[in-house]
Specification:
Layout lengths: L19 H35 L2 H10 L1
Helix pairs in contact: 1-2
Length: about 70
């Protein structure tokens, strides 16, 4: 958990890169950006497997070609 020195309306407002709250949040934002592709791929594969279990042969064939 990250504690910021601001109220609710200031959560997305910063004075610039030297802002104390921005400096606290930046590593977390960078972590989320770095991990986002693998999370999206994982979710897509999971949904794709559900699709393959419940759809027609044609849809399964199209999905397999997209991998």
């Amino acid at each position: 958990m990250i504690y910021l020195n601001t109220n609710h309306s200031g959560l997305n407002k910063f004075d610039g890169p030297e802002d104390e709250n921005f400096a606290l949040l930046l590593p977390e934002i960078e972590r989320m950006v770095k991990n986002a592709p693998s999370i999206v791929i994982s979710r897509y594969r999971h949904k794709g497997m559900e699709l393959m279990r419940t759809t027609s042969f044609r849809a399964k064939h199209i999905y397999k070609q997209s991998l």
